[in-house]
Design brief:
This protein is about 65% helix and about 0% strand. The protein is elongated, with a radius of gyration of 20 Å. With about 240 residues, the protein is mainly α. It folds into two domains: about 10-150, no CATH class; about 170-240.
Length: about 240
């Protein structure tokens, strides 16, 4: 995190708590490539070769472990994995000295991690945008209006790269948004049928044909999909408040 003290000391804290990391590594196959807590801390560095899919799965595990015990090890690892986003939020803080900005961000981040809802049995999704909005509400009172532009600055794979022009939707942001909305639609409907239609993978007529044995009509499917989309739209609207 450039020109900030937010992560100062976290690396040494991680290495001090390796005894806490070892039993979790033995339990979680996902951590096998990272023999020590320090190795995982290094792997989560923004410019590492870790891609977004691998990073989000690790972050999901780390946050769940933090919620289980509130141990500083998992807090430090989460901060490392989310470093670009935290650095951007700290840089936007105004009217305080560096220590006050760091303290405010530490408190907001710890509280947001503790409250972040991650379904333990629903796969590897990590709700990055939900976390971002919670931090913005805690630090600034409400989420920023230009979320697309801000996500371009905080996307994990953008470290050191030129920022997209403000009028463009950054590909990483669009990818994250589409994935999160798609997962939300699938959870609401209990299947991926509405997502397949919305994404153009399958037409409504093809779905009717595929489900002919269940005697599902096109009108019934269309109404079901519309209800799901309306429910998701309402949930997304509530999240923005």
């Amino acid at each position: 995190m450039t020109d900030t003290s937010f992560l100062q000391g976290l690396c040494s804290a991680v290495r001090r708590h390796d005894a806490t990391y070892r039993p979790v590594r033995e339990r979680e196959p996902l951590l096998a490539p990272h023999p020590t807590a320090g190795a995982l801390f290094d792997a989560l560095e923004p410019r590492s070769a870790l891609d977004w899919d691998a990073r989000r799965v690790l972050l999901r595990l780390i946050v769940l472990e933090y919620q289980r015990r509130r141990h500083p090890l998992w807090y430090a690892l989460a901060a490392r994995g989310l470093e670009p986003m935290l650095g951007n939020l700290r840089a936007r803080s105004r009217g305080r000295d560096a220590d006050e900005r760091d303290q405010a961000l530490h408190v907001a981040f710890a509280e947001a991690l503790g409250r972040l809802r991650i379904a333990r049995e629903a796969g590897p999704a990590f709700p990055l945008m939900t976390l971002r909005r919670a931090l913005e509400r805690a630090l600034f009172g409400r989420p920023a209006d230009r979320e697309a532009e801000l996500e371009a600055e905080t996307a994990f794979c953008h470290a050191g790269r030129r920022r997209q022009a403000p009028h463009e939707d950054p590909p990483q942001y669009v990818h994250l948004l589409a994935r999160e909305v798609g997962e939300l639609v699938a959870r609401r409907s209990g299947s991926d049928d509405p997502v397949r239609v919305l994404a153009g993978v399958e037409t409504l007529a093809e779905q009717v044909s595929r489900q002919a044995s269940a005697h599902v009509t096109g009108a019934c499917l269309e109404k079901r999909h519309r209800r799901v989309v309306e429910a998701v739209r309402g949930e997304l609207s509530r999240r923005r408040r």
